[in-house]
């Protein structure tokens, strides 16, 4: 006599797949298929034709919703590489520069400019170099005995500087008038 319990056990090899998959709809294969002649597209009209697709968002010539709704917001391309750091987040550091902030993962590697802000009571002195600092943060750092190195501005190339002839002529005329009097 066979053990009936062993035949009824559930396993991957005993699962049946009947009814889990449907046959693919074969359109345009005659009347007997159920989707013959018009192939489920109905009679006439744009959607019944080949290539008769309607663009996403198209509203029949009416102004589409995405164009009617007012737009707002702006994302500056400069801000992608500029980050602000709160002074209390870096109060444990003794030497602060762009490289040290990147090394400690406070700012991302793509960052090119950093500005330290905030007023915080510092416990230990801090040396800041190559980083912009707000007035309040500078006072907090110097109060704790730290130093803030001034950032040297890069010189502007002459081809980007506009010079006006009118501006340079006016002071010369005023100087002549002053000497004549």
From TrEMBL:
One of its GO terms (biological process) is translation. Part of the 50S ribosomal subunit. Residues 1-61 are annotated as: Disordered. GO terms for molecular function: rRNA binding; structural constituent of ribosome. Gene3D superfamilies: 3.100.10.10. It holds the Pfam family Ribosomal_L27A. Residues 1-21 have a biased composition (Polar residues). Keywords: Ribonucleoprotein, Ribosomal protein, RNA-binding, rRNA-binding. One of its GO terms (cellular component) is cytosolic large ribosomal subunit. It comes from SAR86 cluster bacterium BACL1 MAG-120820-bin45. Residues 88-148 form the Large ribosomal subunit protein uL15/eL18 domain. It comes from the Bacteria. Residues 29-39 have a biased composition (Gly residues). This is Large ribosomal subunit protein uL15. Binds to the 23S rRNA. InterPro entries: Ribosomal_uL15, Ribosomal_uL15/eL18, Ribosomal_uL15/eL18_sf, Ribosomal_uL15_bac-type. Belongs to the universal ribosomal protein uL15 family.
């Amino acid at each position: 006599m066979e053990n009936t319990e062993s035949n009824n056990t559930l396993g991957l090899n005993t699962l049946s797949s009947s009814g889990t998959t449907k046959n693919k709809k074969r359109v345009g294969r005659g009347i007997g298929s159920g989707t013959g002649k018009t192939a489920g597209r109905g009679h006439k009209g744009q959607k019944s034709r080949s290539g008769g697709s309607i663009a996403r968002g198209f509203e029949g010539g009416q102004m589409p919703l995405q164009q009617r709704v007012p737009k707002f917001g702006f994302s500056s391309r400069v801000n992608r590489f500029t980050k602000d750091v709160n002074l209390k987040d870096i109060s444990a550091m003794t030497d602060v520069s762009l490289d040290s902030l990147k090394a400690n993962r406070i700012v991302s590697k793509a960052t090119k400019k950093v500005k330290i802000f905030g007023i915080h009571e510092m416990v230990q002195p801090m040396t800041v170099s190559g980083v912009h600092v707000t007035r309040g943060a500078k006072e907090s750092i110097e109060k704790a005995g730290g130093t803030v190195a001034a950032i040297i501005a890069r010189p502007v190339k002459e081809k980007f500087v506009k010079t006006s002839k009118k501006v340079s002529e006016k002071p010369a005329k005023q100087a002549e008038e002053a000497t004549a009097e």
